[in-house]
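JOB MANIFEST
job_type = single_chain_structure
chain_count = 1
residues = 288
[input]
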Amino acid sequence: MTDSSSTLSSFPPSTRLEPVIRVSDAAVTLGGRTIWQGVNLTVQPGEFLAILGPNGAGKSTLLKAMLGLLPLSAGTIAVLGKPARRGNAAIGYVPQRRHFEADVHVRGRSLVQLGLDGSHWGLTIPLLQSHKARENKRLVAEVIELVGATSYADRPIGELSGGEQQRLLIAQALVRRPRILALDEPLDSLDLRNQQGIASVIRRISRETGAAVLLVAHDINPILSAVDRVVYVAHGQVAIGTPEEVITTETLSHLYATPIEVLRASDGRIVVVGQPEEEVSYHAHRAR
C-alpha cells in the first residue's frame, strides 16, 4: 500500500525535514510465507507512529526490518539516508517486554547506565575512560528524570512495578540520545493507568527531543491521544494514516476481508467489532 504522508496534519510544513526512515516497496518472507508486501512509508523527525494489528500479522517483523534485524525479500529501507543495519547507534531500541523478578537486585540507575557502558543492543563492553564518568553520570540522571523515574531509580529493579521497570528500560534506550526510539509492545501486561502514563512519557520525550517514535501495540486506545499516525498490519497488507483514517469500518473490513464494525464510544475509545476469532483480543477495550 502507498504511504499516507499527506495526511500528517499535526506537523506543519516547516517541520517536514528529510525523513528519518524511508520504506520503499518493502516485503518480508519468512519460512516461505509472505508476511507483508508493497509497504511504502516515510517517518518524519519527532513523529509518533503506532504499529497495530493482530498477533502474527507482522507488526514486530516490520519494526525489526526497520532496525536491520530482518532481511527484506523485496524493496528497500533507509534509515537516516543509509540502508537499515543492525546496531545503528541512532536508534534506541526497547525489545518486547522483559520482566525482572523480585530477586534481581541491580539498581534501576545501573540498568540505565548499561545503555552507555554496553553496546547499543545490551552487550557489555569495558568501562568507558574515567574522564567520561562524570558526563555519563549526568546523562544517566538526565534521562531518568526525563522518564519520571528519579524517585525510585536507586531501588533494586526487581522491587519495582511493571510500569516503573518499563520507564527505566525506556531511559536506558534514551541515554545515547537516539534520533529514533523503537519500542516493541512496551505496554504489554501493564494496567490501563500505566499504559496511558508510559504513552504520555513517550509523547513528551518525542516532542522535547525530536526523536521519531515507532511503537508496536495491540490496542490503540491507551495511546490514541499521543500518536500522529498508525500503521495497521493485517493479512499481508498495510494501511497507513491517522487513526481516524485507518481505524474505520471500511479500511479494516478491507484488510481483514470480512465485515468489521468500528465504533466510537462516548469517552473517545475505539471499539472494533467482528474481528476473526483468533484476533478478537487484539483490541483490549471491547463492547461487553
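[summary]
The longest strand covers residues 33-43.
The two ends are 34 Å apart (CA to CA).
exit_status = 0
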